[in-house]
Amino acid sequence: NVNGEIKTLSKKDIKAIAKIISAAENFPTEAKPILKEVSELAVKKKIPVLGITGTGGAGKSSLIDELVRRFLMDFRDKTIAIISVDPSKKKTGGALLGDRIRMNSISNERVYMRSLATRQSNLALSKYVQEAVNVVKAAGYDLIILETSGIGQSDTEILDHSDVSLYVMTPEYGAATQLEKIDMLDFADVVALNKFDKRGAQDALRDVKKQYRRNRQQLSLSDEQTPVFGTIASQFNDPGMNSLYIAVMGKIAEKTGIKLESKLGHTDEMSEKVYIIPPSRTRYLSEISDNNRNYDNWVKEQAEVANQLYGIHKSVATLQQSKIEDKDRLIKKLQEAYAEVEARLDGQCKKILEAWPKKSQQFKDEFYIFKVRDKEIKIKTHTESLSHTQVPKVAVPRYEAWGDILRWVLQENFPGEFPYTAGVYPFKRTEEDPTRMFAGEGGPERTNKRFHYVSLSMPAKRLSTAFDSVTLYGRDPDIRPDIYGKIGNSGVSICCLDDAKKLYSGFNLADPRTSVSMTINGPAPTLTAFFMNAAIDQQCELYIKKQGLEKEVEKKIEAIYKKRGVKRPRYQGALPEGNDGLGLMLLGVTGDQVLDKEVYEKIKAETLKQVRGTVQADILKEDQAQNTCIFSTEFALRMMG
Fold it and tell me: To the nearest 10°, the Cα dihedral for 168, 173, 179, 182?
């Protein structure tokens, strides 16, 4: 019974829409009167229908999802309906209706999607598709997308039901002569060559454009004017998809007169696959192995040359001390041989051998002196045992033969020297930092309290932050049941800069003894930005206090919030023991709003040099295991980079 549904149809009542379409499919005879009424309503409304068709597996559903996403971004007040048709199997009569598997953008109140089965074999559309289109037209959606099931070379059924047609194909259509057989290339307003990352896609694009022009007798049309686009619908923010969307919206406006001109910026970039490992570098692990083996062989050769030189050098020294009558002639011959062998010794290896006495002596002296960021660091090279024996921190090998020395320097070397087998610093630290202080529960104040509790009286603050799943998925806290139950669960809830300021309040983030580790993946760049800005604003606060500007700054903040007409954010509850309130003065504002630009930029530059920490953003681990991926793996890797 669908008699009452017609009244709520114009309000876009999705239950009414669904019931009327189901009635048309299952009870066409009984539903005739209401369908006639719907048809009359639909005729009065001028709503564009975009028909999308193409071969099975061409990526139509993924492409539609990307078009819908762009439409929703482009037109904040417009609505869209999707009628998607899937084929029924001849043997079983069933249909998968699997198009919605690819739809990530339809979870929006401005989108309605209905899947239909063809209910007949060898056809790309359901016989009730026009009724379904009429229903969503009568409901008043601003744009209707009609998607067919996969079609063959001669199908053009979509043209009877759409104002603008988009044909989706892939570069894998066979020989160029096959293009002559595809009827839709004669009629389609726009053509998308999807899966443009396939081999030979550039050649396919050129051939399809030629065929499009030939079919329409428009041979003078330039490549830029030909509405054929290479797209990779599976790739985030694909340039080809952007160009296709703008062309489709332009064609709708041109053919129907309805103003749906896109405001999205046009780019002339072409789709290009972003590879995790580019094809030219698929052997990169083998290249590393080859490089290491080649290096080992080179070291072996150079060490042998150095040993020969050492042997000749010792022979010359022995002859010089001997009383052999013919020694001058022999020494001359050996010196000639020495020069010949020395020509095979690499210049860098020669420098290493020349520097060896001085380098080894540095570790034998009482103090070892080196520089880090122009700061001179002086370290004692020995420790004294209980029996007052001087034990060297770095044991210098007692090699004499040049080959042994060279082999050791090239393969092991001192700490802080290539190939860094004993670390990147000349000496290990003598003091031991406390263990990482891991916390993350509830809101920022609760976790801040925990941080101060576990770090109280510790010489160094090594804060390790766990975030809740709402934050990990890049969402804001909400009363939606699936979000509400997860807020602050197994991690801290952070959704804005003020939350980050509260979380780390009382810890000087620019102090060399403070470091922060954040276990965050998808929204890593955003959380890193929160952290950096919290650190900068802390230093702005210290500057304000040092210069005695508290009253002046307080007036500026009060003026900002008076103008906004809202309350200033505050730290909820009493400050925990150890929290001196650093970072809370500028809650709700940033340093650049209350300080001169020059002063702020100076503080910012200094802070970014000093701040310490790490962001755990292993997207490959997320992809394989934990699954907090909110972007495609390729895009996430680029963003992390």
Answer: -50
CA atoms within 13 A on the CB side of 196: 28
Tokens of 562: 């008076």
Instruction: Quote the tokens at residue 223.
Output: 């490549």
Q: Which candidate, 160, 145, 34, places its Cα nearest to that of 100?
A: 145
Length of the chain: 641
**CA-CA distances (angstroms) from residue 204 to 63, 201, 221, 352?**
19, 5, 18, 57
| All domains in the chain, ordered by first residue | 46-256 (3.40.50.300), 284-411 (no CATH), 437-640 (no CATH)
Task: Tell me the per-residue pLDDT of 236-269, one tens digit each, with 9 for 90 and over.
Answer: 888 999 999 999 999 999 999 888 878 887 666 7
What is the token pair recorded at 142?
A: 């601003």
Listed in sequence order, the residues at least 6 apart from 473 whose beta carbon sits closer than 8 Å to its beta carbon are: 522, 628, 630
The CB-side HSE value for 9 (13 A sphere, CA atoms) comes to 26
Rounded (5°) CA angle 40-41-42 = 90
What does residue 68 show for φ and ψ, rounded to 5 degrees? -65, -45
CB within 8 A of 15, min separation 6: which ones? 5
Alpha carbons 519 and 447: distance in angstroms, whole number: 14
List the beta strands (DSSP E) in 375-508.
Answer: 375-380, 382-384, 390-392, 437-439, 461-466
Cβ pair 107, 138 in contact under 8 A: no
Beta-strand relationship, 382-384 and 461-466? unpaired
**DSSP notation for 557-568:** HHHHHHHHTSPP
Euclidean distance between CA atoms 49 and 588, whole angstroms? 47
Average confidence (pLDDT) over 447-452 = 96
What global pTM score does this model have? 0.63
Question: 170: which 2 tokens?
Answer: 């892939």
At 113, phi and psi to the nearest 5?
A: -130, 140
Which tokens belong to 374? 């122009």
**586 contact partners, CB below 8 Å, separation of at least 6:** 501, 537, 540, 541, 553, 557, 594
Query: Residue 151's closest CA among 188, 205, 115?
Result: 188
pLDDT digits (tens, 9 = 90+) for 149-196: 877 777 788 888 899 999 999 999 888 888 888 888 988 999 999 999
14-26 vs 32-44: helix crossing angle, rounded to 10: 130
DSSP code of 164? E
